[in-house]
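User: Predict the structure for this protein chain, please.
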Amino acid sequence: MADQPVFQRVLLKLSGEALLGESQFGISKEVLEFLAGELIGAHGLSVELGVVLGGGNIFRGVSKSAQGMDRVQADYMGMLATVMNSLALQDALERRGLPTRVMSAINMPQVAEPYIRRRAIRHLEKGRVVIFAAGTGNPYFSTDTAAALRAEEIGAQALMKATMVDGVYDSDPKTNPQAVKFDHLTYDEVLARHLAVMDATAISLARDNHLPIIVFDLLQPGNIKKVLLGENIGSRVEG
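Assistant: Here is the predicted structure, written as structure tokens:
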């Protein structure tokens, strides 16, 4: 493992479900505080950090609660859920002294800056954590796709996908004890095997722009920092 980070700028994708903790709905204060500590530790390496949060702990456009709703309307509700999560993370980080900016793809100037690429890059260069909210601002696109898109726009060197398991498996390791973990995969292998890394649009976007994706366990203390320092953990998708 290197003493210095192997990346200078990264985009971290976090699922909304990760914020649930032991709850069935909403945001766990304990998980939020843990995540804030992990991000502060990573920021201490002088790495420029962008973050995209999902909204599944509050509302997802493809969830059971959205059944019967107009898909576009449901997706916009999901985008608003990501804004709520982003504001909660911003609060947790700034209470511990880490400057942040929430930038929203949906215009809501009372609570977040509008997403402007050059402004986002400037915030990163000034050492602020930039939290990209409201997905792409368009229905039918997931926050996975938003993460891949924002990573490309800001020139991130890697897309770090923090999940509830320690990498990519050929089946769900929570239900199949015989599931096999992959250390390395190509984008085409992920697509051909229909592996649950990110959705196909996000994988294709990463492939077309040669953006490596590193999948790892969010809730293992120190993992974000380990990935930044080049330690071989989780699963890596590239090539």
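Residues 9-156+167-175+203-237 form a domain with the Carbamate kinase fold (CATH 3.40.1160.10).
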